[in-house]
Write a structure and sequence with these properties.
Endonuclease III, domain 1; 13 helices; Nucleoside Triphosphate Pyrophosphohydrolase; binds iron/sulfur cluster; 5-stranded mixed sheet; 2 domains; 358 residues; alpha+beta
């Protein structure tokens, strides 16, 4: 495991803490959840911000905080309503876990949010990062956050050449982040390092010329800012091809809820066939085929093609016994966008927006 190129001594730790905190006082980044002490709202904001940019997550936080102002109100909500409110934000397991954890708090913990790191970490969907963030922001507990921003700041400042996606990296960077955490003000320190990584020591264009850590930053001194942090070669995304059948019958269409362990569990979709097929495979004459719509997920690249099929009003009932209709419910086409949560790629088709792969 490559060691930092600068020795981590008390002087360097004090330099890092002081300059980071001073920077954050001079560069405030107002957010609705900053200064919030309600652990429920802090947890909500942190779950929404997982793998999501602040600008994208902000309106979702506001919608959730307004509709479900307490953990009990979230616990009492219907899962479909929670999924609908989450629609468009992606990573839907977050919404399912949020809802399950709210029920757990309401039913098993008497509605009282856990007050320890371990208790918060035990909630469904809460990893070490979120537990540290909630523990420090809500209860002032000394647990250092470690996310992509923090990895980058630490790798650059200390000149660490460990592959950040290697098995040993998490242990090394967690220990370092914890050592640097200012025990006198863990919330302010955690907030400062996250904001600093997001706005100053950024992935694409680090603002080294105005950086208060520059004089001790190993990456800057060794001209390695663009190289660090190091990562192994990029993830290969699994390619999937979905064919959706939008079967129109008497002004209605057929939709079903996704179940099982695949992506988008709990969201709705049209009857779907995965893999290469032709419009002619469906054995109906009136069919319209869309252009491909694409959606990139962390591990998968999904291409969706939509077939619009118009069934005659008096089509024989036996048609609906086809396995394609299994688990489907028949709804008025006008209701499609009202209270059903779809994956983004289906939303885009319904709104006729093409997502491009890049
Ligand atoms: S000098 Fe540049 S690379 Fe180093 S911490 Fe500052 S912004 Fe990041």
């Amino acid at each position: 495991m490559p060691e930092p190129t600068s020795p981590i001594n008390d002087r360097l730790i004090a330099f890092f803490r002081k300059n980071l905190l001073d920077w954050s006082v001079q560069n405030p980044r107002p957010m609705p959840w900053k200064g919030e002490r309600d652990p429920y709202k802090i947890w909500l904001s942190e779950i929404i911000l997982q793998q999501t940019r602040v600008e994208q997550g902000l309106p979702y936080y506001q919608k959730f905080a307004a509709k479900y102002p307490s953990v009990r109100q979230l616990a009492d909500a219907q899962e479909d309503d929670v999924m609908k409110l989450w629609e468009g934000l992606g990573y839907y397991s977050r919404a399912r876990n949020l809802h399950a954890a709210a029920k757990h708090i309401a039913n098993e913990l008497n509605g009282v949010f856990p007050t320890t790191y371990e208790g918060i970490r035990a909630l469904k969907g809460v990893g070490p990062y979120t537990a540290s963030a909630v523990a420090s922001f809500a209860f002032g507990l000394p647990h250092a956050v470690l996310d992509g921003n923090v990895y980058r700041v630490l790798a650059r400042f200390f000149g660490i050449e460990t592959l950040t996606d290697s098995p040993s990296a998490q242990k090394q960077f967690t220990a370092l982040a914890q050592k640097l955490l200012d025990p006198g003000c863990p919330a302010a320190h955690n907030q400062a390092i996250m904001d600093f990584g997001a706005t100053c020591c950024t992935a694409q264009q680090a603002r080294c010329t105005v950086c208060p850590l520059q004089s001790e930053c190993q990456a800057f001194l060794m001209d390695k800012v663009a190289e660090l942090p190091l990562k192994s070669k990029g993830l290969v995304k699994k390619k999937r091809l979905f064919h959706y059948l939008i079967i129109n019958h008497q002004g209605h269409v057929f939709v079903r809820k996704r179940t099982g362990k695949d992506i988008w569990r709990g969201l709705w979709e049209f009857p779907q066939v995965e893999g290469p097929v032709q419009a002619s495979d469906f054995g109906v004459e009136t069919i319209r085929e869309s252009a491909p719509f694409k959606q990139l997920l962390t591990h998968q690249a999904v291409t969706a093609v939509f077939f619009e099929i118009d069934l005659a009003d008096d089509v024989p009932a036996v048609v609906f016994q086809n396995p394609l209709f299994e688990g489907c419910k028949r709804i008025d086409r006008k209701e499609l966008k009202k209270n059903i949560a779809f994956p983004r790629v289906i939303d885009c088709y319904l709104q006729n927006i093409v997502l491009t792969l890049n």
